[in-house]
Amino acid sequence: MFLTGVTGYLGKVLLVKLLSVCRNLPDNSICVLVRGKKELSASDRFDKDLFNESYIFKQLLKDRPDARKAIKVIDGDVSKSKLGMTPTDYEWVSNNVTSIIHMAATTNFNENLRLAFEINILGTKRVLTLAKQCKKLLSMVYVSTCYTNATRHSGTEVREKVYPINFDPYEVIKDVTAMTPEEADKATPHIIGNHPNTYTFSKMIAEHIVLEEKENVPLAIVRPSIIGGAASFPVAGWADSYIGAAGLVSATGLGVLHGMNGKGSNIVDFIPVDYVVNIILSACWHTAANPPGERMPIYHAASSTRNPYTWEDLRAIVVGFYRRRPPKRVVGSVWCIFIQNPFLFYLYHFAFTRLPATIQDARRVVKGETPKMVAGAKVLYKACHSLSFFTLHSWLFAAHNTMALWESLSEADSVIFPFDISQLNWEVWSVLFCEGIKKYVFKEINDLENKGTERKFRSKL
Questions:
Q1: What CATH number does the domain located at 2-240+269-307+395-424 have?
Q2: Which residue positions does the secretion signal occupy (predicted)?
Q3: Domain positions in the chain
Q4: Is 60 exceeded by the pLDDT of residue 447?
């Protein structure tokens, strides 16, 4: 198996799942593409970020001390020709790999368009080229996003298909890759049109390239919505960074986020990270067992049509949790509201975030400390602005293929790889997510108010 993107949140959980479930893997049977960083080689970075520092990998090693032997780390970069691999490594993958899961991407909403194209589009194209040369390939899964179709009207159904576009994606790729990063920045609003950011636009084009060039590759696409904390695996509520959904919950819990430019009654399409992993692995198995031929099945890893949940529901639970159990690093009162009007939201942000930050910085200067609160308030406002498109709009992501995939699992496999979102209790999940952020992101891992309460919530989930 060949994996990209394993150092990311989703990739870590998927790799731990594989190593936990497949207990008799031969040495080097899971091949991971990792980019070296600064003074660290790819292998050293992989060991440092995952096996040496990640909580879930440390827990894995307690049960499987030899787990690292199953992994072959290859130095590479999806933004480089032939994925940045040496000829020897490229040939090894071509001769030995039977399945590919491509998760690597830049998920930065405000990424430079040139770089977003290089990683999200051309990187995917390079992985597909590799797949065509793999002599033993049985399946490939490309991880995209539900929001490739974010230009569709709010409230409408988005089906599990690649929708037609009114431009030639190859011409756009040619134009953008010929630009300098500075030129791409200036041209971005014109090029992406109604898309909210370079991330959704580049992933949308990548899907069209995959559809056009897949040829005989047995390939499926998995589209996650907003990935949140784990429902149960590797531990309930697991989160490990301030990225994505965890960032919003963290900022609210710390008392720095008091408002969002959005509509509370809109659906917040969360999906637990372990459900996404289980859908990916199930799709990988199903594609190998039932080659799709010319078809390219698409699976929505989403909750909006099967078990809808609103932003207001989430807000109430998050605020209630952190008022009862504030983090040690809390910097202000915990509350948050939704404001639909952008101008009113700006005034609200200025009054309750920017102005208090200015006062706090003034106090810091008087004390001889470095002012940093205003800078943080600016970052927070920018983040809220980037997310406003998704809090002001909502879609209904059809999940017919995903449910058919679920029903194809045996009873035993459905226990090992659960992803029936209709059975998830959102209230319980939200509390566990808040708990997970407190423990694993805020590093208050031993600050459990009541371990019995956590066990009770897990059993309910």
A1: 3.40.50.720
A2: none
A3: 2-240+269-307+395-424
A4: no
